[in-house]
Structures are given as C-alpha cells and as structure tokens.
Design brief:
By secondary structure, the protein is mainly alpha-helical. It has twelve helices and four strands. A two-stranded antiparallel sheet has the order 1-4. A two-stranded antiparallel ribbon has the order 2-3. The model has no long low-confidence stretch (mean pLDDT 92).
C-alpha cells in the first residue's frame, strides 16, 4: 500500500539501520565539496585582481564601509555551508558508532541532521545555479591573462618533438627560450625567428602558428581534454545525462545549452 518494494529481511536491522541517512549525507557532503571548490574559484575570479567574471547584483552585496566593493556573498555563504553539511554527516556517524542493536533512543537525533543536510544542500544548489546562470564573463581580460606565464612553453617542446628533436633536448631548449624571454620581458611568440633558430635549427617560421593561443587550445582535443571541441562534447554529454534524469533539472539544462551556444 505504501509503494515499497517489499519488507525488510531482518526486523532488528529494520529498526537499527541508519545507513540510508549516512549514505545520503555522504552524497550531500560530496555535493557541497564540489560547490565549495567552485565557490572558491568564483570568489577569486570575481576579485579585482582577477576580474574574470562579474556577478549579478542579486547575488552580491556592497561593503558596509567601502562603497566601491562588491562582495560575492552567495559563493562565500555556500563555501561556508559546506562545513554545516559535513557536520550533519559527522553527527550521524558519531551517534551510531557506539550503539548496540537494535533501536536506541539516541537515534531520534538522526532527523535533525538528515533534514538539515538535505535542506542545506538543496538550497545551495538552487541559489548557486541562479548565480552561475546570471554571471558574465570578461573574456577580454581572460584572453589577456592567457598570454602571461609562458603557458605555451609545452607546445614549443611538442613542436620541436614534431621536428624529430628528442624531448629531453626540446625540454632544455624551451628552458633556454623562457630564460631569454624573462631577460627581454616578452612572451615566447615575441622572440624573432632568428632568436629562436639560434636555440635550434629545426625551428621554422611555422613555430608562431604552433604558439598561437587558438592553436594551443585546439590541440587539447583528446577525450576529456580542455580544448573547445572536447569541452563542447563534454557539455553535450552532461546535457544528455540531465535529460535522462528524472529530477527537474531544467535550470541546469538551460545553463549547459547556453554554454554550448557560446
């Protein structure tokens, strides 16, 4: 009548078991781990030092003393709420660890932890989704940062390997190229062809195409890679997974669809 698959096979286990609560809170805790890590990224990206993203005013607040400041409140609160859900899980485990079979009155403490963990994780997912769906990306700032830190140094080594240069030699050559760039205060692609060829004769004028940002990105096309084609495939797989899910993840699907379009 209640729609269950059947009865419990053991009556003592039926009243003594709280694994379902611990397992649910474990899953909720893992969700909060990922939300917390994502929040940390957003907090960094939204800072003036990075300026990678702009959060919608609905999910930010001003400072009580600094009028120019825009605080990423939702991300900070979600990051903090993760500890609350972890505490719910630890409360259940600590309550259960010393109990004999079967039911003990201690176990009435499971309700508060279970319901709090469920409510907290659900609310964090809901508001986090809204925050991400309304934030804007400062693509020009991010593109500018790509040209710092010699991020294409490995691609120069790969380029040399493609010219039949052993990787150990290519590794040393690229190290010399980076040192030269540090002295000149420039990027690898800013070195002249003559300067690059002085490091190794295998370098030709096609090296600049290999060092270009778009070329570097496109090379990361392996399964699970970070290149545009690979990421688009991963987004498509995520959209299919959510489409098959029985839960109403409409807002999540909308975010993925917008990412696919971008």
């Amino acid at each position: 009548l209640l729609g269950f698959d059947g009865v419990c096979a053991n009556s003592m286990d039926a009243v003594a078991d709280r694994d379902f609560a611990a397992e649910f809170l474990t899953a909720a805790s893992l969700i909060m781990v990922h939300l917390s890590r994502f929040s940390e990224e957003i907090i960094l990206w939204a800072s003036a030092e990075f300026n990678f993203i702009q959060l919608d005013d609905r999910y930010s607040t001003g400072s009580s003393i600094m009028p120019q400041k825009k605080n990423p409140d939702v991300a900070e609160l979600v990051r903090g709420k993760s500890g609350r859900v972890f505490g719910d899980l630890m409360g259940i485990l600590t309550m259960m660890k010393g109990l004999p079979l079967a039911y003990n009155k201690d176990m009435q403490e499971d309700k508060e932890a279970l319901f709090d963990g469920a409510e907290t994780a659900a609310q964090c997912l809901e508001i986090f989704t809204a925050m991400v769906s309304t934030m804007s990306v400062n693509a020009s700032v991010m593109a500018g940062c790509v040209n710092t830190g010699f991020l294409n140094a490995t691609d120069l080594a790969d380029y040399l390997v493609g010219k039949q240069v052993p990787f150990r030699t290519a590794h040393r050559i690229v190290g010399q190229a980076v040192l030269l760039c540090i002295e000149r205060q420039c990027a690898l692609e800013d070195l002249s062809l003559e300067e690059l060829q002085s490091l190794h004769s295998a370098i030709a004028d096609d090296v600049y195409e290999a060092l270009a940002v778009q070329s570097v990105l496109n090379k990361r096309s392996a399964c699970g890679g970070t290149g545009p084609a690979s990421v688009a495939k991963q987004l498509h797989q995520a959209a299919q997974l959510l489409h098959c899910c029985e839960m109403p993840w409409d807002s999540h699907r909308e975010i993925i669809q917008s990412l696919l379009q971008d």
